[in-house]
Design goal:
About 20% of the residues lie in helices and about 45% in strands. It is α+β, with helices and mostly antiparallel strands.
Length: about 120
């Protein structure tokens, strides 16, 4: 059941939002590369985070229109350390990217991106 209670798939307007799957990696990498064309290392960072112990598969989400991946957001763990040195892990948004229309050849000015360094 798509978008039902307890489902990992959500329908938001024309977008279907769900957890990233292995089969999505190439499409996600392409979306991130386009969104962060001015920061070429960011696309590589996605693969690095996927391979790290801080990767949270359920917190890497794709947005689709039809079968096309048009958006991506990833959260991963980051250490928060207080004044006493107590360390705890908190989820941190690492990056998000989206193509603002479903046209894969849309111009870069129709792509939005943000990056948060943890």
């Amino acid at each position: 059941m798509r978008g039902g209670v307890g489902s990992s798939v959500r329908v938001v307007g024309e977008f279907v939002v769900e957890a990233e799957r292995f089969a999505d990696h190439a499409a996600v990498d392409a979306v991130v590369w386009r969104a962060f064309a001015h920061h070429p290392g960011v696309a590589d960072m996605v693969a690095t985070i996927r391979g790290s112990p801080r990767y949270r598969p359920g917190l890497a989400l794709v947005a689709r229109i039809g079968r096309q991946v048009v958006g991506f957001v990833m959260l991963s763990g980051t250490d928060l350390v207080d004044d006493t040195g107590t360390r705890r892990e908190v989820p941190t948004a690492r990056m998000s990217a989206r193509i603002t229309d479903a046209d894969p050849d849309s111009s870069p000015n129709r792509t939005a991106a943000s990056l948060t360094d943890g």
